[in-house]
Design brief:
By secondary structure, the protein is α/β, with parallel strands linked by helices. The chain has a single domain, classed as 3-Layer(aba) Sandwich (Rossmann fold). It contains ten helices and twelve strands. A six-stranded mixed beta sheet has the order 6-7-8-3-9-10, with helices on both faces. A four-stranded antiparallel beta sheet has the order 2-1-4-5, covered by helices on one side. The protein has a two-stranded antiparallel ribbon with strand order 11-12. A hairpin with a 5-residue loop joins strand 11 and strand 12. The radius of gyration is 19 Å and the shape is globular. Bound molecules: adenosine-5'-diphosphate and magnesium ion (MG).
Length: 288
């Protein structure tokens, strides 16, 4: 399918804009956005976005700097509201639900969130406090199961033994992994990772890709949405992709049709040579 056909299928899926109380999300949808736009002052950050993430899918969101990726996933994380259109997360419509009830079901890791975390907290406290919906040490005693879960998550994300280290003493890569462990603490149904590979060295990136590949293979894992602007960071078993440019969808759908030489070149406004190897890993270079 060409990118123009993908765009037209997205347009067909559009529905009229109704009030949040009258919006019926698609059954079993993890994210359902219908004709969403988001305006900040004079800037149209998102323009007529319709997007549907179903249980069992694993999504990549890609696009150049400033394309609107973080704006889009902040909506999906119930951290903001659209200016027009409707957003339903896990069947709950934004504007018709108390977002504080919804947020524990959504794991989020982003640079913005990291900046809000106290640097002198221990990693164990940072991870375990997510279970209580707070940041920073909250009370002297936690439930033993919560502490055990925090340590298990730190081990799963490759930073076992870091529990007593302070957040600010971690390397960028270790910090990103601690944030993912934190995002997983509430056992969410949706896991949103905004550029988790940013600032990582090669070994850190490859460890992350391997962990995300394992997560994507786990049927009990939350539905992941991974934001990146590097094709090398895409784990091989992610199933779907959306490409954004200037707040608009360039392509969205199954990864093999949504993420091609044509669509990537269009999104990044650069003629690209894109390859995918036998293991399913991507590379992209400018055509010379
Ligand atoms: N609060 C805001 N007011 C005005 N413009 C904003 C605001 N937040 C983000 N933007 C702009 O919206 C665009 C998209 O930002 P963002 O979603 O962070 O992009 P990305 O994550 O793809 O790099 C950028 O041009 C950014 O400068
Ligand atoms: Mg961003």
């Amino acid at each position: 399918m060409s990118s123009s056909e993908l765009i037209s299928s997205a347009i067909i899926a559009q529905r009229p804009i109704v009030s949040p109380h009258d919006f019926n999300p698609i059954e079993d949808s993890v994210v359902h956005m219908s004709r969403v736009s988001l305006r900040r002052g004079q800037n149209l950050l998102l323009d007529d976005i319709s997007w549907h993430v179903q249980e069992g899918e694993r999504w990549i969101v890609m696009g150049p700097n400033g394309a609107g990726k973080s704006t889009l996933i902040n909506l999906a994380a119930a951290r903001s509201h659209p200016t027009t259109g409707n957003v339903a997360i896990l069947g709950e419509v934004l504007g018709a639900v108390d977002v504080f009830d919804l947020r524990p079901a959504i794991g989020l890791s982003s640079t913005l969130l990291a900046e809000q975390l106290p640097g002198n907290e221990t990693i164990r406290d940072l991870v375990v406090t997510a279970a209580y919906g707070v940041t920073g040490r909250w009370r002297e005693e936690y439930e033993p199961e919560d502490l055990q879960r925090a340590d298990q998550l730190l081990a799963r994300w490759g930073i076992a033994g870091y529990s007593d280290r302070r957040f600010r003493t971690l390397s960028e890569g270790e910090r990103k992994r601690a944030l993912i462990a934190r995002a997983m603490m509430t056992d969410p149904e949706l896991l949103i990772l905004d550029e988790p590979g940013a600032g990582m060295d090669l070994a850190g990136r490859e460890t992350l890709v391997r962990s995300l590949k394992q997560l994507a293979a786990d049927t009990y894992a939350p539905t992941p949405i991974l934001v990146t602007h590097h094709v090398e960071e895409i784990p091989p078993n992610f199933t779907h992709a959306m490409l954004l440019r200037e707040g608009r969808i360039v392509s969205a759908g199954p990864i093999d049709t949504a993420l091609t030489e044509e669509t990537l070149s269009e999104a990044f406004r650069l003629p690209l040579k894109v390859t995918r190897n036998a293991e399913g890993r991507f590379t992209a270079f400018a055509r010379t």
